[in-house]
Amino acid sequence: QVQLVESGGGLVQPGGSLRLSCATSGLSFSVYAMAWHRQAPGKQRELVAAISSGGSTTYTDSVKGRFSISRDNANNKIYLQMNSLKPEDTAVYYCNADFRGPVRQYDYWGQGTQVTVSS
């Protein structure tokens, strides 16, 4: 059974930092592209940052220079370091694992962790 479990969310003041973690189990972690998505109230879910199986990273424009995604293949985890947080970063953050093979594709999601940026 595949599980993705996010942690590290919470309430933080504008300008503060948080580090999100996503622990995975039940999948061949190293071959999966991993990503963080977020969904704010009344808005569609959006991709925040992604990291390929080879370690290449991409970010949505609004978080470039402030957020950093990383992966630990030895421990089957990914992280999202979030600095200089803004109120507009408030959302539920979801961990995603994606594998696209020639025959099969797999897509898994965590349950989400709430991040609230407010004074």
Give an overview in words.
By secondary structure, this protein is an all-beta fold. 0% of the residues lie in helices and 54% in strands. The chain is built from no helices and eleven strands. β7 (67-72) and β8 form a beta hairpin.
In short:
The protein is mainly beta. Helix content is 0%, strand content 54%.
Key descriptive features of the protein:
119 residues; 7-stranded mixed beta sheet; 4-stranded antiparallel beta sheet; 54% strand; globular
Q: Strand tally, please?
A: 11
Multimerization status: single chain
Number of helices: 0
Average predicted local confidence, pLDDT = 97
* Series of H and E elements: EEEEEEEEEEE
Radius of gyration: 14 Å
Percentage of residues assigned to helices: under 10%
> Spans of 5+ residues with little confidence (pLDDT < 50)?
none
Distance between the termini: 40 Å
Largest sheet: 7 strands, mixed
What class do helices, strands and sheet pairing give?
mainly beta
Sum up the overall morphology in one term.
Answer: globular
Proportion of strand residues = over 45%
Fold topology:
Blueprint: E1 3-7, E2 10-12, E3 18-25, E4 33-39, E5 46-51, E6 57-59, E7 67-72, E8 77-82, E9 91-100, E10 105-109, E11 113-117
Parallel strand pairs: 2-11
Antiparallel strand pairs: 1-3, 3-8, 4-5, 4-9, 5-6, 7-8, 9-10, 9-11
